[in-house]
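HUMAN: Quick job: go over this next protein and say how the chain folds.
***
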Amino acid sequence: KSSGINAEWPLRPGKRRIENPRIVMLDCNLEYKKGESQTNMEFMQETDFRKILQLEENYIKDICDDIIALKPDLVLTEKGVSDLAQHFLLKAGITAVRRLRKSDMNRVARAVGGQIVHRTEELKDSDVGTECGLFEVKKFGDEYFTFLTKCKNPKACTILLRGASKDVLMEVERNLLDAMNVARNVMIDPFLVPGGGAVEAAVAHRLIEKSKEIQGVGQWPYRALAEALRIIPKTLMQNCGVNTIRTMTNLTAKHATTGSTWGVDGETGNIVDMEDFGVWDTLQVKSQVFKTAIETAILLLRIDDIVSGVKKQSDIDAEKMAGKFQAANPQEGPEE
């Protein structure tokens, strides 16, 4: 029940631990807004420059007063925070964290409640996030991470991964994403099938039995697809270092006599019942794999048909030359 962000701390950091903080989330700059185009200013008196600086200070003070009126403990913004704004906020006992990513800000809003506001003039008390139990800053390595923990009703969270190297960290992240996608697929389509090549072996056995009922060349597509599906359990056997031919024969016999849940143990290469062994695949992923493989094979066959039906340009030129030669040298018929 926590959310962690890697954000930029201002030059004057505030408190690093706040219990039950009131959090204001902004999508605007807490600094003087620069003009979109080049602006030239002419000063006629020495006091004119002071007036310009005073206008900037008043603008920043008005922004900070809008925030201070809600009495927050923490301000998170996706943009920058000027030194003057930090001074006013720290004077009021408010900690500011700047330059959060848009995705991080959305997650924080879902975790702590409240709304992201685009202008400080529009701030209301209902926009303040009050569902966070603890705000704290921790340092891992050379970077600081901000944690919002003990949230009451969080709808988002952060998983912090650590690894000895970048490659290890990327591998851990990939495995975590795969596991989360599997869990999501099971929640969407709650159906499982036996793993360890059991489904491929069972479908291959049914295709072989079906091909025996068909006469002529019509049976060969069934046999070709069955042989392609058997590559999955064969690969598992090869990775385990067992006798592929003998083990595949035993697996086929199991499916022919016992049942369709027998597969290959990926560690020992033995034939085991996947229902008892506890290895399952999601039906959604398995059906999509079959569908994609068959559609790819059909696509390649169509391309081969198109290529084989087109003559090469060299063959066309050779036929034209042969036609011209025959026209220039017509053959005489047999003498009577």
